[in-house]
């Protein structure tokens, strides 16, 4: 009996020893510290530190839904449009010894009524100190108009929202800055009548801007040079140009955020800079141009526009505004003048941060003596829009 008991006890001790050795051999993984995402307040709300780097990142996006009414003057055109767009992008920033290195991209996809359209890249640029390269808002634009429709060709601003560009901005202190940029010439082409039309791009547009920002508001002066080069080698190359200036005043005596702005632009052979790059009014396309070939030379089209607007905040989340503009397009030849005018009233409500509910109504008038619109006639166009927009 003693022998059996001794054997049992010995076996149990051996099993315990073996089990202990096995546990020691396998090891137990110790819990690691959780690496939490850190915020990056240096660049504002929404930025966070990319783990393992010194860079900061912000995911940006937007969902926009519009209902648009337009009393188009042709039966083939829709009188109302349901529009939905989804935007996505990011803002990546790194502080370097040479200044801020920033990479930004944002694009969208959308559907109007039953028609979907291909993805659109709005912005895709790199900033390094004062250098900016990629797809950006044109240096030419003042960016003061808040209307949902945007206008165009009527003194509100030029007719493109984005351009491929390489530019440099120098800040001089005291609110003064200067920018010089080379922009894609093709994005500013309207038309050359005769000579086979525009030829290949041989020189980018050269655009410059002087700006001043202060507590009372801001002011700017911009200029551009645009090459006019036809397919035909028999037609001499010419250079169009444009100039624009404007001023914006803050109106805190009315309410914080209220403002008033005015601007004017003139172009000779560069119609897009004044908004006459392909304007459509009420379903009618206007026959605009940059120049007309006469013999072996180019005669440039002269255009000019004036515009302005006032925006008033009735409370921090509710505002209303009105924008108006007038423009004229004078192409070479008899009775080729186009005149256009526009006025837009807009209201907006931001019930919560980043969410906008707004609406607008507008009126356009165009008179022309040539082109698609019958000679000696004028067209009136009324339009409206209801917008829901959520940004994050």
Nutshell version of this structure?
The chain is mainly beta and 392 residues long. The protein is 6% helix and 56% strand. It starts with a helix and ends with a strand.
Key words describing this protein structure:
16-stranded antiparallel beta barrel, mainly beta, 56% strand, 3-stranded mixed sheet, 392 residues
Walk me through this protein's architecture:
The chain contains one helix and 22 strands. By secondary structure, it is mainly beta. A 16-stranded antiparallel β-barrel has the order 2-3-4-5-6-7-8-10-11-12-13-18-19-20-21-22. A three-stranded mixed beta sheet has the order 9-16-17, with no helix packed on it. A two-stranded antiparallel sheet has the order 14-15. The longest helix has 25 residues. It is globular, with a radius of gyration of 31 Å.
Topology at a glance:
Layout: H1 2-26, E1 48-49, E2 56-70, E3 80-96, E4 99-112, E5 115-128, E6 131-136, E7 163-173, E8 176-183, E9 192-193, E10 205-214, E11 217-228, E12 238-250, E13 259-268, E14 280-281, E15 284-285, E16 291-294, E17 297-300, E18 302-315, E19 318-330, E20 337-352, E21 355-368, E22 377-391
Parallel strand pairs: 9-16
Antiparallel strand pairs: 1-2, 2-3, 2-22, 3-4, 4-5, 5-6, 6-7, 7-8, 8-10, 10-11, 11-12, 12-13, 13-18, 14-15, 16-17, 18-19, 19-20, 20-21, 21-22
